[in-house]
Amino acid sequence: MDLSASEEVQVSYLNSILRKVNSTEENFKETFVKSPEYIELLSQFELKEITTKQILKWINESTKQQEKLNGIKALSAIFNIGGNDIGRCCLDKDDDEGGTLKDLMEFIEFDKEVVQESIIEMLSIACSQKQLLDKGSDVDVKANAIEGLAYASLKPTVKETITYHPTLLKEIFKLVKEQEKSNNNLSYGVTVILSNITSYKKKLSKDDQHLLKLKKMAEGGVRKGENEKLETNPLDEDEYVENRIKQIMKLGGIQSLILLSRNQSQIIRQLVSLNFLNLATNQMNRGMIVQQGGVKTLIPLAIKDGNTKEGMNFATQALAKIAITMDPNLAFRGERSSDLVRPLLNLCQGEDELSQFESLMALTNLGSVENDIRMRIYDSKGIPIIENLQFSENTLVRRAATECLCNMMFCEPVYELYSDVNKITILVALSDVEDFETRRAASGALAILSTDPNVCTMILDRPKGIQILKDLFNENSPEIQHRAIECFKNIAGSDKDKAELLVKAEVHKRMLELVKESKVESVVVTCAEALKILSNYGLLNI
User: Considering the domain boundaries, does residue 423 fall inside one?
Assistant: First the structure.
């Protein structure tokens, strides 16, 4: 071959090689790579750019899917045997023609799935990884390689490849540490890669599933009448996501996210917040997040203006998950946990029921530690927000709201606020619902509030007030029994007339039984105290 031939001759020769290549997908790449004429041509540095651009043109102009696939596989072969110079050429987006990466990305979403898969496989494995692992590549080239991986990591197979590559994630995290704050493109690309790898698949509602099935039918994927299960790629199932998250945390992902959070870009901070939420979704990961300083990073992301509204919600959700399952004294040691009250209340006002539930649970746990937090909830006008969720159609949300309010009864302004007929009526009604935890919380609130004689009157004035407490009294749960007995003891102690109503309802008979039968000290002691009050009035002969 004449190596001094003109460019037109070289391109023509390349095209002749492409035409001679076996077109079957299975052995296209192998045949192409083993072509001695092509390797000789490729060895000439000045022809490398011509080669890649010609194949790219061939891919773009082709209307046949198989030709596109063959061209993509040709590019992959070039990257694998052509050295890092080709990778730099393809990742360089500053030239007038944009570079291979940019051009490929402009048409990828308009092609069929099989073409997209081939493109991203080529980008991630043959091109981007090579540049990231090459110590000779400069930062800009590596940043462009990161962008290539960010596009590619949308695909499940690439998520797995990146996660379990022996050195790739380590190199990415090392790059984050070296380029802290100085390269927004790189930081953005890394946060996108991590969020793609760690994000759980969206749980579809019945309406969403129906729309997806209609879409599949329109595309010819599901015929009318078929009962095919519409599933995502198995690699996006929770088990695979959780394993990828474990690997990322093992390799230093938390520390990298902490570094990335220092970037001033709001969108980068939003993605960092999302990544922390993904990591915190599995309860087993939360201890490591706390140990490595994640809480200290998340609190500013939840409360400061440097994040987007959505990002602040992500950070707050992550903190709520941590606050639910860990001792607040340990998880938030040295941090101003009271600053979380407003963000958590904001989540309570959103539409996502899981966020409502977790925020209520977090407020309950945080409020159980410090009265300052209970006062912050009250001062932030949180009581009406929490009360509103007692009417949610979701049982878990109703339960969590009632438990949170029960905990708030230890806050003096809330205690005084609940000396109200309407509020007591709601608590009495909730003490009679089917859900055990809701009954327990509502009756617990009544037990606290009944230390006020006015509340005792309100309870007795309810049409079924005494009967509902008697029903609680007769349950097998010592927790529920104790709450009912506390209410009866406080009612009896408020005045003799009310005590007579209890005797008339034969409440004392069940108390005498529990004194003899119960093995729970708090139940026995409280029954004895209530019976003594009735005896002191002369209503019983004991």
Answer: no
Amino acid at 210: H
Q: Per-residue pLDDT averaged across 494-501, rounded? A: 93
**Which residue type is seen at 96?**
D
Helix (H, G, I), strand (E, B) or coil at 84: helix
Lookup: tokens for 267: 């969108």
- Residue 305 is given by DSSP the state T
How far from each other are the two terminal CA atoms of the chain, in whole angstroms?
Answer: 117
Helix orientation angle between 395-408 and 436-449, rounded to the nearest 10 degrees = 20
d(CA 103, CA 57) in angstroms, rounded, equals 10
User: Do residues 505 and 532 share a domain?
Assistant: yes
- The sign of the torsion formed by the CA atoms of 313, 315, 321, 324 equals negative
Most confident of 35-39, 94-98, 110-114: 110-114
What would the DSSP string read from start to end of 360-372? HHHHHHHHTT-HH
Kindly state the helix (H) or strand (E) to which residue 510 belongs, with its residue range.
helix 507-517
How far is it, in rounded angstroms, from Cα 501 to Cα 465? 12
C-beta of residue 274 within 8 angstroms of C-beta of residue 312: no
The number of domains in the chain is 3
Whether residues 116 and 186 fall in one domain: no
Residues 192 and 72 in one domain: no
- Least Cα distance to 341 among 327, 326, 328, 352 occurs for 328
Report the C-alpha gap between 311 and 367 in whole angstroms: 24
420-449 pLDDT, tens digit each: 999 999 999 999 999 999 999 999 999 999
Q: pLDDT class for 29, splitting at 50, 70, 90?
A: very low
Shared domain for 119 and 41, answered yes or no, is yes
Could you tell me where the beta strands, DSSP code E, fall in 305-420? Answer: none
Which residue, 381, 332, 393, 385, is CA-closest to 359? 385
55 & 143 share domain? yes
Return the DSSP state at 202.
Answer: P
Q: Are 4 and 89 within one domain?
A: yes
pLDDT tens readout for residues 55-103: 666 666 666 766 666 666 666 656 555 544 555 555 555 445 444 555 5
User: Is residue 69 within a helix (H) or strand (E), and if so which, with residue range?
Assistant: helix 65-81
Euclidean distance between CA atoms 342 and 376, whole angstroms = 8
Residue 127: give the domain boundaries: 1-152
39 and 114 fall within a common domain: yes
d(CA 417, CA 18): 82
SS3 of the chain: helix, strand, coil, percent, to 5: 75, 0, 25
